[in-house]
Amino acid sequence: MRTRLLTNRSLSLIALFLSVLIVLLSTMRINTSIHNTTWLEVEQLPATRLGEILMHTTGSSPPRGVALVMVSYTRMYSLREAYEAADLVILGKIIYTEHYTWNIKRPYMGKALTFEEPYSYHRVKVIEVFKGNPISDIIIVAQFGGLDSKGRLVIVPEDPPMEEGELVILFLKGPREKGDFVKYPGKEYCHMSVFGRFKVIDGKVYSAMYFLPEEKNGISCRSIAERLLKGLEGYREVNGITIEEFLKLIRS
C-alpha cells in the first residue's frame, strides 16, 4: 500500500515537471519569434495623440525602431489662413538638428504614468524673410518627433522630421517664451506642421502633398498628407511653382 502511494506521488511529480517543461519550451519559442521577426504592439495614448504603433526591427543599424504617431488637429488651415496665422515666414536651410526627449507625467487609466515626448530642435539659417522679423540669422525651430531615448524614430507621417540640408519655407509661431516642450525660452519657434512646411527644390516650391516620400522607414507619408490637404484651398497649387508665384498665392 505504501509502495503504491509513493508511485502515485512520483507520477504526479513527473506530470508536474512535464507541464512546466512544456510551458518553458512554449515561452522560448514565442521569444525567439519576437526577436527574429518584426512585431507590432498597439498602445492607446492620451490627449491629442490618437494612437501609437511601435515597430521594432532586428538589426544593429539605427534607428532601432519606428513609432508612428497619428495627430488629431483641432483646426485645419487653408494656405492663406496658415500664412495669416504665422508670426514669421522664412526661406531657410536646416543646418543642424538636435534630438531631445521630454519625460511627461500624464493621467492614464486612473494612474499617473510617464510618457516620452521626443522633439527635434532644428537650427535654421534664414535666407530670406517674407513676413515678420526673426530674432537672429540662425533660428531654432521645434518640431515634434525624431529620435527618442531608446533610439526609435518617432514620425508624424504628414510631418516627418526635417533633415539637415533641406531648403524650406516655414510658417512659424513665436518666439515662445514659455509653455510645454520649450527648451530655449525666447529663442525657439514652432512650425505649423503640415500646414506651414514647404520644400524648395531647384528653385521650385512644393507642398507636403508632393515633396514627401511615398513612405519613410516603412510609414506611408505622402498619401496621409494628401488626405489632409486636398480639401483645403491653396496646397494643391503648390506643385513646382516659383517662390514669386508662391508668394503671390499666399498673399492674394
Percent of residues in beta strands?
A: 35-45%
The number of helical runs is 5
Instruction: Order the strands across the largest sheet as they lie in space.
Output: 1-2-3-8-7
In whole angstroms, the N-to-C terminal distance is: 102 Å
Walk me through this protein's architecture.
- The protein is of the alpha+beta class.
- It has two domains: 1-33; 77-144 and 158-251, OB fold (Dihydrolipoamide Acetyltransferase, E2P), CATH 2.40.50.
- Helix content is 25%, strand content 42%.
- It has five helices and 15 strands.
- It has helices spanning 2-36, 79-85, 208-211, 222-229, 243-251, and strands at 39-43, 49-56, 65-71, 88-108, 111-131, 138-144, 146-147, 152-155, 167-176, 188-191, 197-201, 204-206, 215-216, 219-220, 239-242.
- The strands form three sheets. It has a five-stranded mixed sheet, with no helix packed on it.
- The chain starts with a helix and ends with a helix.
Summary of the model, kept short:
By secondary structure, the chain is an alpha+beta fold. It has helices at residues 2-36, 79-85, 208-211, 222-229, 243-251; strands at 39-43, 49-56, 65-71, 88-108, 111-131, 138-144, 146-147, 152-155, 167-176, 188-191, 197-201, 204-206, 215-216, 219-220, 239-242. It is built from five helices and 15 strands.
